[in-house]
Amino acid sequence: MVSLRLMWVLLVLCVAAASPPRYVRQTELHNYDDNNDVDLDQNVDGDNAYEDYYDGNESEIEITRVDPFEGIESSHSASLEEKEEEELPIKPQLIPPSSGASGTLMGPSAQGGMSVCVLCTCLVGSVYCDDLKLDRVPPLSKDTTHFYSRYNKISRISKSDFANLNKLKKIDLTSNGISRIDDDAFFGLPSLEELILRENNIRQLPALPPSMTLIDVCHNHLGSTGIQREAFKDMPGLLYLYLTDNNIDHIPVPLPESLRSLHLQNNNIQMIHEDTFCNPHDLNYIRNALEDVRLDGNPINLSRTPQAYICLPRIPIGNLF
Q1: CA-CA distance, 227 to 249, in Å (whole number)?
Q2: InterPro entries from the xrefs (predicted)?
């Protein structure tokens, strides 16, 4: 047993002698500052602390400070550029006729180089340009059926504004300050039915097509000469004629048989003749359609000319005394 123990001790000693020496390095306490923070870049001898772990044959690891904002600035600026590109206004482009798109109202450039459907609101055949400070009628597509341009600053209507718009049925130019209209600006519109020119400065009503059903020229300055003679004679489908507040001194006759409503209040009409509404040669004549006649606000006494509206289903509204 003694010999076995001696052999075991010798074996342990041989193994210990064959193993490489171990190096232990300690950091002294005086290398710490008052806050117990260690300088990772320098050891106690002023040497690089990482050199003791690598010999000359191994590649050194480069220690650098990483900027926490590195790469963020460039990506942030790139995202801003992308956002700016997204927020830029869409440039209007013409829709080619061969595209087959339904929005054919994207026509030629309007004010400021903008297409009419970017400047205004287009819905099927209707174009809405209300309250946009327009000073002229924007170019319209040939498919336009209804055009609204109320509360703008349009002062003149020329022949070219509505040229070749064969499908146009309604025009509303209320409150624009219009003072001049070319005489043939509307006459060449075969489908036009409703024309609203309220609250403008019109002194001469232009010629209108026979297809009219509603004419509203209230609050203008037509006076005694602003309506052409027999202006409404050849309009077999005219239903509503509104001429309020125009300083008119007569009723524009003849009026079509189809007429249902005639508003002439607040003018300067002083006389109604027997043939204005009725047929003095036919006492049985009844004008059934014309149920609404407004003459209030005129210097006329309706009771003095009872034969002038005896054929009407209702007595006109106005002064009876």
Answers
A1: 11
A2: Leu-rich_rpt, Leu-rich_rpt_typical-subtyp, LRR_dom_sf, LRRNT, Mimecan/Epiphycan/Opticin
Of residues 120, 194, 112, the one with CA closest to residue 152? 120
Please give the share of the chain, as a percent, with pLDDT higher than 90: 61
DSSP per-residue codes, 260-312? -EEE--SS------TTTTS-TT-TT----S--EEE-TTSS--GGG-GGGSTTS
The model carries a pTM of 0.66
In contact, 281 and 268? CB cutoff 8 Å? no
181 φ, ψ (degrees, to nearest 5): -135, 125
Please state, in angstroms and rounded to a whole number, the distance separating the CA atoms of residues 312 and 290.
7
Using CA atoms, how far apart are residues 147 and 141, in angstroms rounded to an integer? 11
| Whether the Cβ atoms of residue 223 and residue 203 lie closer than 8 Å to each other | yes
pLDDT per residue as tens digits for the range 170-211: 999 999 999 999 999 999 999 999 999 999 999 999 999 999
- CB 199, CB 219: distance < 8 Å: yes
DSSP string covering 2-65: HHHHHHHHHHHHHHHHHSPPP------GGGS-TT----TT--TTSS-GGGGG--TTSPPPPP-P
The SS3 call for residue 176 is coil
**Residue 189 and residue 206: Cα distance in Å, rounded?**
13
The tokens for 43 are: 């050891």
- Structure tokens that stand for 212 in this block: 């009219």
- Whether residue 254 is preceded by a cis peptide bond, meaning omega within 30 degrees of 0, is yes
Residue of higher predicted confidence among 313 and 67: 313
Query: Is the separation of the CB atoms in 138 and 128 below 8 Å?
Result: no
Residue 226 to residue 204: CA distance in whole angstroms: 4
Name the token pair of 299: 């210097």
Residue 170 near residue 147 (C-beta atoms within 8 A): yes
DSSP state of 146: E
